[in-house]
Design a protein that fits this description.
By secondary structure, this protein is of the alpha/beta class. The chain contains ten helices and 14 strands. The strands form four sheets. An eight-stranded mixed sheet has the order 5-8-2-1-11-13-14-12, sandwiched between helices. α3 packs across α5 and α7 runs parallel beside α9. The longest helix is centred in the middle third of the chain and has 25 residues, at about 95-120. The protein is globular, with a radius of gyration of 20 Å. The model has no long low-confidence stretch (mean pLDDT about 90). GO terms for molecular function: acetylglutamate kinase activity. Its main location: cytoplasm. InterPro entries: AceGlu_kinase-like_sf (IPR036393), AcgluKinase_fam (IPR004662), ArgB (IPR037528), Asp/Glu/Uridylate_kinase (IPR001048), NAGK-C (IPR041727). This is Acetylglutamate kinase.
Length: about 290
Protein backbone atom coordinates (compact mmCIF):
# COMPACT_ATOMS: atom_id res chain seq x y z
CA UNK A 1 0.00 0.00 0.00
CA UNK A 2 1.32 3.42 -0.97
CA UNK A 3 0.55 6.53 1.02
CA UNK A 4 1.40 10.17 0.42
CA UNK A 5 0.30 13.59 1.53
CA UNK A 6 -1.00 16.23 -0.84
CA UNK A 7 1.79 18.56 -1.92
CA UNK A 8 1.08 22.29 -2.12
CA UNK A 9 2.66 22.41 -5.59
CA UNK A 10 0.22 19.77 -6.81
CA UNK A 11 -2.71 21.74 -5.46
CA UNK A 12 -1.39 24.90 -7.07
CA UNK A 13 -0.99 23.12 -10.41
CA UNK A 14 -4.57 21.84 -10.25
CA UNK A 15 -5.84 25.33 -9.38
CA UNK A 16 -3.95 26.79 -12.35
CA UNK A 17 -5.48 24.22 -14.70
CA UNK A 18 -8.95 24.89 -13.30
CA UNK A 19 -8.61 28.65 -13.69
CA UNK A 20 -7.57 28.17 -17.33
CA UNK A 21 -10.93 26.59 -18.28
CA UNK A 22 -12.66 29.76 -19.57
CA UNK A 23 -9.60 30.63 -21.68
CA UNK A 24 -9.38 27.09 -23.07
CA UNK A 25 -13.05 27.37 -24.04
CA UNK A 26 -12.49 30.84 -25.46
CA UNK A 27 -9.74 29.71 -27.86
CA UNK A 28 -11.24 26.42 -29.03
CA UNK A 29 -11.10 26.55 -32.82
CA UNK A 30 -9.22 29.87 -32.84
CA UNK A 31 -6.38 30.58 -35.27
CA UNK A 32 -3.28 31.97 -33.56
CA UNK A 33 -0.32 33.12 -35.67
CA UNK A 34 2.99 33.19 -33.81
CA UNK A 35 6.09 34.98 -35.08
CA UNK A 36 9.05 33.08 -33.69
CA UNK A 37 12.41 34.79 -33.40
CA UNK A 38 15.06 35.97 -30.99
CA UNK A 39 15.79 34.04 -27.81
CA UNK A 40 13.16 31.35 -28.40
CA UNK A 41 15.18 30.16 -31.42
CA UNK A 42 18.54 30.36 -29.68
CA UNK A 43 19.03 27.20 -27.66
CA UNK A 44 17.76 23.64 -28.00
CA UNK A 45 16.10 23.89 -24.57
CA UNK A 46 14.24 27.07 -25.55
CA UNK A 47 13.15 25.49 -28.82
CA UNK A 48 11.92 22.34 -27.08
CA UNK A 49 9.95 24.42 -24.57
CA UNK A 50 8.38 26.45 -27.36
CA UNK A 51 7.51 23.32 -29.35
CA UNK A 52 5.88 21.70 -26.31
CA UNK A 53 3.72 24.80 -25.81
CA UNK A 54 2.65 24.73 -29.46
CA UNK A 55 1.65 21.06 -29.27
CA UNK A 56 -0.30 21.73 -26.07
CA UNK A 57 -2.09 24.64 -27.75
CA UNK A 58 -3.19 22.41 -30.59
CA UNK A 59 -4.18 19.65 -28.17
CA UNK A 60 -6.72 21.96 -26.51
CA UNK A 61 -8.26 23.08 -29.80
CA UNK A 62 -6.17 26.02 -31.01
CA UNK A 63 -4.95 26.15 -34.64
CA UNK A 64 -1.38 27.50 -34.31
CA UNK A 65 0.60 28.85 -37.26
CA UNK A 66 4.33 29.47 -36.85
CA UNK A 67 6.16 32.09 -38.93
CA UNK A 68 9.88 32.28 -38.21
CA UNK A 69 12.90 34.45 -38.89
CA UNK A 70 16.53 33.45 -39.08
CA UNK A 71 18.70 36.51 -39.52
CA UNK A 72 21.66 35.36 -37.39
CA UNK A 73 21.79 32.01 -39.19
CA UNK A 74 21.71 33.76 -42.58
CA UNK A 75 24.54 36.06 -41.52
CA UNK A 76 26.60 33.10 -40.32
CA UNK A 77 26.29 31.21 -43.62
CA UNK A 78 26.97 34.31 -45.72
CA UNK A 79 30.16 34.82 -43.73
CA UNK A 80 31.14 31.15 -44.06
CA UNK A 81 30.62 31.32 -47.84
CA UNK A 82 32.48 34.66 -47.98
CA UNK A 83 29.54 36.42 -49.63
CA UNK A 84 29.86 40.14 -49.00
CA UNK A 85 26.73 42.15 -48.27
CA UNK A 86 26.08 45.67 -49.44
CA UNK A 87 23.87 48.04 -47.49
CA UNK A 88 21.65 50.92 -48.59
CA UNK A 89 20.49 53.25 -45.81
CA UNK A 90 21.31 50.57 -43.26
CA UNK A 91 19.34 47.84 -45.06
CA UNK A 92 20.96 44.78 -46.61
CA UNK A 93 20.85 44.50 -50.41
CA UNK A 94 19.59 41.00 -51.25
CA UNK A 95 21.25 40.11 -54.55
CA UNK A 96 20.96 36.80 -56.41
CA UNK A 97 23.69 35.05 -54.40
CA UNK A 98 22.30 36.32 -51.11
CA UNK A 99 18.69 35.31 -51.78
CA UNK A 100 19.86 31.78 -52.58
CA UNK A 101 21.52 31.60 -49.16
CA UNK A 102 18.45 33.13 -47.52
CA UNK A 103 16.25 30.43 -49.03
CA UNK A 104 18.64 27.64 -48.05
CA UNK A 105 18.75 28.81 -44.44
CA UNK A 106 15.09 29.75 -43.95
CA UNK A 107 13.39 26.93 -45.86
CA UNK A 108 16.04 24.39 -44.97
CA UNK A 109 18.03 24.67 -41.76
CA UNK A 110 15.74 26.88 -39.66
CA UNK A 111 12.37 25.64 -40.88
CA UNK A 112 13.14 21.95 -40.49
CA UNK A 113 14.67 22.47 -37.06
CA UNK A 114 11.36 23.93 -35.84
CA UNK A 115 9.36 21.19 -37.59
CA UNK A 116 11.43 18.47 -35.96
CA UNK A 117 11.17 20.10 -32.53
CA UNK A 118 7.36 20.15 -32.75
CA UNK A 119 7.21 16.59 -34.08
CA UNK A 120 9.43 15.35 -31.24
CA UNK A 121 6.82 16.67 -28.80
CA UNK A 122 4.06 14.67 -30.48
CA UNK A 123 2.77 17.27 -32.93
CA UNK A 124 2.45 16.97 -36.71
CA UNK A 125 4.23 19.98 -38.14
CA UNK A 126 4.66 20.69 -41.84
CA UNK A 127 7.35 23.06 -43.09
CA UNK A 128 6.51 25.34 -46.02
CA UNK A 129 7.40 28.81 -47.29
CA UNK A 130 5.30 31.61 -48.67
CA UNK A 131 6.12 30.29 -52.16
CA UNK A 132 4.14 27.07 -51.62
CA UNK A 133 0.67 27.07 -53.20
CA UNK A 134 1.14 30.82 -53.84
CA UNK A 135 0.57 31.47 -50.16
CA UNK A 136 2.37 34.83 -50.42
CA UNK A 137 2.86 36.57 -53.77
CA UNK A 138 5.08 39.62 -53.42
CA UNK A 139 6.02 42.82 -55.17
CA UNK A 140 9.55 44.15 -54.97
CA UNK A 141 9.81 46.52 -52.01
CA UNK A 142 12.56 48.73 -53.40
CA UNK A 143 14.68 48.06 -56.50
CA UNK A 144 17.77 49.33 -54.68
CA UNK A 145 17.39 46.51 -52.11
CA UNK A 146 17.23 43.68 -54.63
CA UNK A 147 15.11 40.63 -53.87
CA UNK A 148 13.25 42.04 -50.86
CA UNK A 149 9.50 41.68 -51.15
CA UNK A 150 6.29 43.10 -49.77
CA UNK A 151 3.27 40.74 -49.62
CA UNK A 152 0.72 41.74 -52.26
CA UNK A 153 -1.57 38.72 -52.70
CA UNK A 154 -2.33 36.02 -50.13
CA UNK A 155 -3.89 32.58 -50.66
CA UNK A 156 -4.36 30.72 -47.37
CA UNK A 157 -6.36 27.72 -48.63
CA UNK A 158 -3.35 25.45 -48.01
CA UNK A 159 -3.27 26.50 -44.34
CA UNK A 160 -6.95 25.67 -43.87
CA UNK A 161 -6.30 22.26 -45.45
CA UNK A 162 -3.53 21.65 -42.92
CA UNK A 163 -5.82 22.70 -40.03
CA UNK A 164 -8.44 20.20 -41.19
CA UNK A 165 -5.83 17.45 -40.99
CA UNK A 166 -4.58 18.47 -37.54
CA UNK A 167 -1.25 19.65 -38.88
CA UNK A 168 0.75 22.66 -37.71
CA UNK A 169 2.09 24.96 -40.47
CA UNK A 170 5.64 26.24 -39.98
CA UNK A 171 6.26 28.99 -42.52
CA UNK A 172 9.53 30.45 -43.80
CA UNK A 173 9.12 34.13 -44.79
CA UNK A 174 9.85 33.82 -48.48
CA UNK A 175 7.49 35.01 -51.19
CA UNK A 176 6.98 34.25 -54.85
CA UNK A 177 7.39 37.00 -57.42
CA UNK A 178 5.01 37.38 -60.33
CA UNK A 179 7.80 36.47 -62.77
CA UNK A 180 9.23 33.52 -60.88
CA UNK A 181 11.50 35.43 -58.52
CA UNK A 182 12.11 34.52 -54.90
CA UNK A 183 11.69 37.38 -52.44
CA UNK A 184 12.99 37.63 -48.91
CA UNK A 185 10.25 39.04 -46.66
CA UNK A 186 10.69 40.51 -43.20
CA UNK A 187 9.50 37.88 -40.72
CA UNK A 188 7.21 40.22 -38.80
CA UNK A 189 5.71 41.53 -42.04
CA UNK A 190 5.06 38.00 -43.28
CA UNK A 191 3.45 36.98 -39.99
CA UNK A 192 1.18 40.02 -40.03
CA UNK A 193 0.14 39.43 -43.64
CA UNK A 194 -0.62 35.76 -42.98
CA UNK A 195 -2.54 36.57 -39.81
CA UNK A 196 -4.59 39.18 -41.65
CA UNK A 197 -5.40 36.84 -44.52
CA UNK A 198 -6.51 34.16 -42.03
CA UNK A 199 -8.54 36.70 -39.99
CA UNK A 200 -6.69 35.20 -37.03
CA UNK A 201 -7.93 35.60 -33.49
CA UNK A 202 -4.44 36.52 -32.28
CA UNK A 203 -1.07 37.49 -33.68
CA UNK A 204 1.68 36.84 -31.14
CA UNK A 205 4.97 38.61 -31.87
CA UNK A 206 7.70 37.01 -29.75
CA UNK A 207 10.52 39.45 -29.08
CA UNK A 208 13.46 39.93 -26.71
CA UNK A 209 11.70 42.71 -24.80
CA UNK A 210 8.87 42.53 -22.30
CA UNK A 211 6.38 44.54 -24.37
CA UNK A 212 5.48 48.11 -25.34
CA UNK A 213 6.73 50.57 -22.72
CA UNK A 214 5.39 53.99 -21.80
CA UNK A 215 7.46 57.15 -21.27
CA UNK A 216 8.31 55.99 -17.74
CA UNK A 217 9.64 52.67 -18.99
CA UNK A 218 6.77 50.55 -17.64
CA UNK A 219 5.19 47.88 -19.84
CA UNK A 220 1.67 48.82 -20.95
CA UNK A 221 -0.42 45.66 -20.94
CA UNK A 222 -3.43 46.89 -22.94
CA UNK A 223 -3.44 49.38 -25.80
CA UNK A 224 -5.73 50.57 -28.57
CA UNK A 225 -4.50 51.27 -32.08
CA UNK A 226 -4.77 55.06 -31.78
CA UNK A 227 -2.75 54.98 -28.56
CA UNK A 228 0.01 53.16 -30.46
CA UNK A 229 -0.03 55.83 -33.17
CA UNK A 230 0.11 58.63 -30.62
CA UNK A 231 2.98 57.01 -28.70
CA UNK A 232 4.87 56.70 -31.98
CA UNK A 233 4.26 60.35 -32.87
CA UNK A 234 5.47 61.34 -29.40
CA UNK A 235 8.65 59.30 -29.77
CA UNK A 236 7.75 56.97 -26.89
CA UNK A 237 7.67 54.04 -29.29
CA UNK A 238 10.96 54.20 -31.17
CA UNK A 239 13.75 52.15 -32.71
CA UNK A 240 13.16 48.44 -33.19
CA UNK A 241 9.74 48.58 -31.57
CA UNK A 242 8.28 50.63 -34.43
CA UNK A 243 8.31 47.78 -37.00
CA UNK A 244 6.67 45.49 -34.42
CA UNK A 245 3.84 47.91 -33.66
CA UNK A 246 3.40 48.74 -37.37
CA UNK A 247 3.03 45.02 -38.08
CA UNK A 248 0.45 44.78 -35.29
CA UNK A 249 -1.51 47.76 -36.66
CA UNK A 250 -1.45 46.39 -40.23
CA UNK A 251 -2.61 42.98 -39.02
CA UNK A 252 -5.50 44.47 -37.05
CA UNK A 253 -6.49 46.57 -40.05
CA UNK A 254 -6.41 43.34 -42.07
CA UNK A 255 -8.90 41.65 -39.76
CA UNK A 256 -6.90 40.18 -36.85
CA UNK A 257 -8.86 40.56 -33.61
CA UNK A 258 -5.82 41.53 -31.53
CA UNK A 259 -2.03 41.48 -31.66
CA UNK A 260 0.32 40.90 -28.75
CA UNK A 261 3.95 41.91 -28.41
CA UNK A 262 5.43 39.66 -25.75
CA UNK A 263 8.71 38.48 -24.30
CA UNK A 264 9.78 35.26 -25.97
CA UNK A 265 12.46 34.83 -23.30
CA UNK A 266 9.80 34.13 -20.65
CA UNK A 267 9.10 30.43 -20.11
CA UNK A 268 5.77 29.34 -21.60
CA UNK A 269 5.11 32.87 -22.88
CA UNK A 270 2.44 31.79 -25.40
CA UNK A 271 0.55 29.75 -22.81
CA UNK A 272 0.67 32.60 -20.31
CA UNK A 273 -0.72 35.00 -22.89
CA UNK A 274 -3.58 32.82 -24.06
CA UNK A 275 -4.62 30.85 -21.01
CA UNK A 276 -4.12 33.12 -18.00
CA UNK A 277 -5.90 36.24 -16.78
CA UNK A 278 -2.78 38.43 -16.69
CA UNK A 279 -1.30 37.55 -20.10
CA UNK A 280 2.39 37.99 -20.90
CA UNK A 281 2.92 41.20 -22.87
CA UNK A 282 1.22 44.17 -24.51
CA UNK A 283 -2.06 43.42 -26.26
CA UNK A 284 -3.17 45.82 -28.99
CA UNK A 285 -6.84 45.94 -29.96
CA UNK A 286 -8.84 47.99 -32.47
CA UNK A 287 -10.24 51.31 -31.28
Amino acid sequence: MKTRQMNRDWISTAATLSSALPYLQRYTGAIVVIKLGGHAMGSDDAMDSFARDIVLMQQVGVNPVIVHGGGPMINALLKKLDIKSEFVNGKRVTDTATVEVVEMVLSGLVNKRIVQAINRQGGRAVGISGKDANLMVCDQTDPSLGFVGTPAEMDVKLLHTLFERDMIPVIAPLGAGRDGETFNVNGDTAAGAIAGALKADRLLLLTDVSGVKNAEGAVVTELKTEQIRQMTRDGVIAGGMIPKTETALDAIEGGVRAAVILDGRAPNACLLELFTEHGAGSIIRPD
